[in-house]
Give the backbone structure.
Amino acid sequence: MSTVNSKPQLIVSDRGEPFAWAEEELRAIKEAMHHYPDARAATIDALKIVQRHRRWVSDSAIAAIAEVLQLSAADVDGVATFYNRIYRQPVGRHVILVCDSIGCYLTGFEKVYARIQEVLGISPGQTTADDRFTILPVVCLGACDRGPVLLIDEDTHFNVTPDQVSQLLEQYT
């Protein structure tokens, strides 16, 4: 006869370790909540706060945010997965978003994309061994008249050519 273990087990996904709040994260989220009449409206702020401190939002962070905001984890995850700038997997210190829309495609995106991968030695969705860069495709960066376009962290780079890639990446240490 088997016995039932009454002690709850901690189940951690392959996306991260158990979550423990940093004091400044929790303080910032509670402050953000005061700006809205409904805690649900602070969801994107809370996700951004966690990501700013940890570079990504783990499953355990989703559950912790949901608890603070008194929402379901599914509701918080729905917001997190809707926005392509909330990273649900670990990323490097610098995220390179490469616009692969038709406008950038027609202006040479493929050569720029290939050059970035060649210089960094990684493929889209991967992170360099030194944890410096992650490359991610994005549907549109809203500058179709100035493609190819890259967004590195918060910096938008227009009319990028393959010859500019190495010098451009050197700016991000």
